[in-house]
Description:
- This protein is mostly beta strands and 93 residues long.
- It is globular.
- It contains no helices and five strands.
- Strands 1, 2, 3, 4 and 5 form a five-stranded antiparallel sheet that branches.
Amino acid sequence: MEVINESLEEGATVSLGDTIHYKKLSTEFSSPRLHAICSGATGEYVTLRKVTENGDNVTFPSESTVLGTAQNTAHANTVFIWYAIPLSQYGGK
C-alpha cells in the first residue's frame, strides 16, 4: 500500500493506485491537502476542482475519482469539489 500526503493544485498531477482504501481532504492555510492510502497499479491523474453552491447538480467525467470537498471561506454556500481524472483523458480545462 502507498500513502499519499500531497497539496492539491488545479491542473497538477498526482500518482494514485487503482484501489483507494482511504481518502481525506484537509485544508492547511487555505490550501487543500489529500491524505490517502492506495494499492494496486499506480497511474498519473490530473487534479481538478468544481466550484458549486448549495443545491447544485454536478457531474464528473467517466473514470474520474472524487477526492473530497473544501469549503470556500470567502462564500458560505460555495464548496470546491476536488476530483482527479487519468492523465491520458485530460485535454485541458
